[in-house]
Design brief:
Layout: H1 2-19, H2 21-31, H3 37-69, H4 73-93, H5 101-106, H6 110-115, H7 117-122, H8 129-142, H9 150-172, H10 174-181, H11 183-220
Helix pairs in contact: 1-8, 1-9, 2-9, 2-11, 3-8, 3-9, 4-8, 4-11
Length: 221
């Protein structure tokens, strides 16, 4: 039990700063501004479930999948960083639109809403390449082998579940935070986090590119 608790704390301390559901909630709200509250919360629930599954998959089989395709974590960081940079730049350049009211919200098709649940809302905006690479690394180093170690599996399930629950709370009730901050305040917060998302993408790319350059230098020498 003590070992499980330590592993849960390790997973949460490693993933929370990267997933950052509180910081992502203004972006989620901006991308779902035309949705009614019930649909937004249903979408937040789906994003949380997708995030949980993606994190568990990264912990359990992420290393094996990358090895099967011959892909290294630095390559995942470079490719994922490009996607994050693209989304951050698009949101940074996005023009603010006035609230178009309940009439537009009622016309939103639920099928169209859930088409965006995995991409881009889950991947890469919530669980991006940084989170995936951390989860893969933890899964590879936490225990050997992971699938035969019950405390490690339990810690992975609990840690990922807590992160997913936090995502649902922050995303599903992002409109209440917006009501407190105000429309202009949310606009400022959105621009700020869009810029931070852009910077995070550049940092992820840099980490991956630096690792690739170092490995190339070792091969040359």
């Amino acid at each position: 039990m003590v070992e499980t608790a330590k592993n849960v704390l390790l997973i949460l301390s490693a993933l929370f700063p990267i997933v950052n559901p509180l910081g992502g909630s203004p972006v989620f709200l901006a991308l779902t501004r035309d949705y009614p509250t019930s649909a937004r919360r249903a979408l937040a629930r789906q994003v949380a479930v997708n995030s949980f599954i993606l994190l568990i998959a990264s912990f359990m089989v992420g290393t094996h999948i990358l090895n099967f395709f011959g892909i290294s974590i630095p390559v995942v960081q470079v490719g994922g960083g490009l996607v994050v940079v693209s989304n951050g730049w698009a949101m940074l350049k996005q023009k603010e639109e006035p609230d178009r009211g309940r009439d537009v919200q009622k016309k939103v098709d639920l099928q169209d809403i859930f088409r965006n649940a995995f991409y881009p809302l889950t991947l890469p905006l919530t669980v991006g390449p940084g989170s995936i690479s951390v989860a893969i690394t933890l899964g590879a180093n936490l225990t050997h082998p992971l699938r035969t170690n019950l405390p490690a599996i339990l810690a992975t399930l609990i840690g990922s579940g807590v992160v997913a629950a936090t995502i649902y709370v922050c995303y599903g009730f992002a409109d209440r935070m917006a009501a407190v901050i105000g429309e202009s305040g949310m606009g400022i917060v959105l621009r700020l986090f869009s810029f931070l998302l852009l910077c995070i993408g550049v940092q992820i790319m840099w980490n991956g590119a630096s690792a690739l350059v170092r490995s190339l230098a070792l091969i040359v020498h």
